[in-house]
């Protein structure tokens, strides 16, 4: 049963990503990495639900979403960009298959990093980030979500690559077989993959080809 929650605070993360802090209903629970179906609680939008990941920790007093808005069409994320504190969202129960299953490599394409935010924040809070790696692909340097926060997490190795900025000092190009062979020391570990559907399929196939255990690859289904 969807519940109406008020937006308490919004702030920019990048030029097209914003953080939304909202009320947390009594008894509401989720695991880091899980998501919920969200709609704007206003006329004409209540049936337009979209899945968004919780990015605060489960024991926080409020809920948080970190959402990329697509302004090339007047959809939910475009409309969400203009919301203000006091406006309301509808949220459903938590769901999702991307939950932490052990030390490994997190591979994200663009906004696909959002399921990893709460997981990595939880590991950082518990002092258990040593040996974990985040590999994230974005179009440009300015598109990188929470770069400063991730790079400041003790024990987390961050590897960035950009696909649409020739002048970037970061790695260039897709996360393909050669890229993974160069940057991943061992394929005998857990892998977490999130991004566009085709990217997920390609990386899953590549990881298996490189010797990763299929049962050790976690992705959103």
Features:
six-stranded parallel beta sheet; Rossmann fold; Elongation Factor Tu (Ef-tu), domain 3; 5 helices; 12 strands; 221 residues; alpha/beta
Morphology: globular
Series of H and E elements: EEEEEHEEHEHEEHEHE
Write the CATH homologous superfamily of the largest domain: Nucleotide-binding domain of ferredoxin-NADP reductase (FNR) module
Low-pLDDT segments: none
Would you give an account of this structure?
Helix content is 19%, strand content 30%. With 221 residues, it is α/β, with parallel strands linked by helices. The chain has two domains: 3-91, Beta Barrel (Elongation Factor Tu (Ef-tu), domain 3); 104-219, Rossmann fold (3-Layer(aba) Sandwich). A six-stranded antiparallel β-sheet has the order 4-3-6-1-2-5. Strands 10-9-8-7-11-12 form a six-stranded parallel β-sheet, sandwiched between helices.
Please write out the topology.
Layout: E1 3-12, E2 17-22, E3 35-40, E4 50-53, E5 63-68, H1 76-81, E6 88-91, E7 104-109, H2 114-125, E8 132-138, H3 147-151, E9 156-162, E10 171-172, H4 177-183, E11 190-194, H5 197-209, E12 217-219
Parallel strand pairs: 7-8, 7-11, 8-9, 9-10, 11-12
Antiparallel strand pairs: 1-2, 1-6, 2-5, 3-4, 3-6
What is the compact description of this entry?
This protein is an alpha/beta fold. The protein contains five helices and twelve strands.
């Amino acid at each position: 049963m969807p519940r109406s929650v008020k937006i308490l605070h919004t702030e920019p993360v990048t030029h097209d990503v914003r953080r939304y802090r909202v009320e947390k209903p009594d008894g509401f629970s989720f695991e880091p990495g899980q998501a919920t179906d969200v709609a704007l609680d206003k006329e004409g939008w209540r049936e337009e639900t979209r899945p968004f990941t919780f990015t605060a920790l489960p024991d926080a007093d409020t809920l948080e979403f970190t959402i990329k808005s697509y302004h090339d069409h007047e959809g939910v994320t475009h409309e969400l960009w203009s919301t203000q504190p006091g406006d309301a969202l509808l949220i459903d129960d938590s769901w999702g298959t991307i939950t932490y299953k052990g030390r490994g490599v997190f591979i994200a394409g663009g906004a696909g990093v959002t399921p990893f935010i709460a997981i990595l924040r939880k590991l950082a809070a518990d002092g258990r980030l040593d040996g974990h790696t985040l590999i994230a692909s974005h179009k440009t340097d300015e598109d990188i979500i929470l770069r400063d926060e991730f790079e400041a997490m003790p024990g987390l190795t961050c590897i960035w690559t950009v696909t649409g900025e020739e002048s970037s000092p970061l790695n260039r190009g897709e996360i393909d077989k050669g890229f993974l062979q160069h940057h991943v020391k061992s394929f005998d570990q857990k892998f977490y993959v999130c991004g566009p559907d085709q990217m997920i399929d390609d990386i899953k196939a590549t990881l298996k080809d490189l010797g990763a255990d299929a049962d050790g690859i976690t992705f959103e289904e």
